[in-house]
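Standup notes
- DV: blocked on the single-chain target, sequence here:
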Amino acid sequence: MSSDGMTHAPKGHRNQVCGPGEFQIAAVHLDHGHIYGQCNGLVEAGAEIKWVFDPDPEKVTAFQKAFPGARAARSLEEVLEDESVRLVAAAAVPCERGPLGGRVLDAGKDYFTDKTPFTTLEQLEEGRQAVDRTGQKYTVYYSERLHVECAVEAGRLVQSGAIGRVVQTLGTGPHRLNANARPPWFFKRREYGGILCDIGSHQCEQFLFFTGARDARILHAAARNTANPLHPELEDFGDCTLAADNGASGYFRVDWLTPAGLGSWGDGRLFILGTEGYIELRKYIDVTTSNGPDQLLLVDSKGEHRIPCQGRVGFPFFGQLIEDCLHRTETAMTQEHIFKAAELCLKAQNLSDAMGSALKNSSRPQIA
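- DV (later): unblocked, structure below
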């Protein structure tokens, strides 16, 4: 188990959906460790990594140890000019992900970025325009659903009607900080975007997916620094309440407050309440037990059920993404869904910022 979420890179079984050389990709801007999870999933589904590029040669060397077939590119341009590359995977500094995506799409390639895909609403709009302009795919690695087997199984159960119509989701996304191991950008608000924009992007995406909503409103959002005075720009706690266009509601909490004693980098959970039952996901650890991660608890009209999912469900998203890129379909995830999830986390962050500014101003002494 990784000591923090930044180095968490799940591996699954090989389930190739394409032949040798049919889907060549590149990995660029390796600023976040999620790039390894992104590439693991794609390679297991049949992708071949032709190129790797990062300005830091040490990152390139480390990546090539994990993926020996990847050739070191001299520049991003060398990658973008290679017509055999169909998709570019990237985990750049968050504030650079949107602009990088525009360059990739304009080069005629699909783009697979780590979350959060944008740090401003302006970047989001530019991303939408780039997709409309080029016809290429802007895809996001929402790993807390896509690369978690109990979440994949929960999606299957919900879509089969196992708990009826979903009424509410309640998500927690705690992470271990490990401040000494974090890069400088991690603590700069303009660069990481704020906690609701960053970790909250996972929660907004899951809310839309499990409720089946196409849109939602942010009813409440707040974030603050509770325990890290040495890093004043870091938000280590945030929460948000949402209302969907189909009547469902949602609440989530995210934080960087995981204690040292937990045997995982975060006790991520999700509760999905339906009209005929409910599901609880214990994603990365089942505290005080030996059950392991990927535990799904289902309560329905027939009783109480514990479903261990690790190693039994797989990660179908990656094969679906490759097939979507090859056949220009939208099976893995629609652009509408991707951009709406990004929009909600950005609006939540902006509302939190506005509330924080209002509170600061109201606490100042008034001058007569």
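- Follow-up: Residues 77 and 170 are 43 Å apart (CA to CA).
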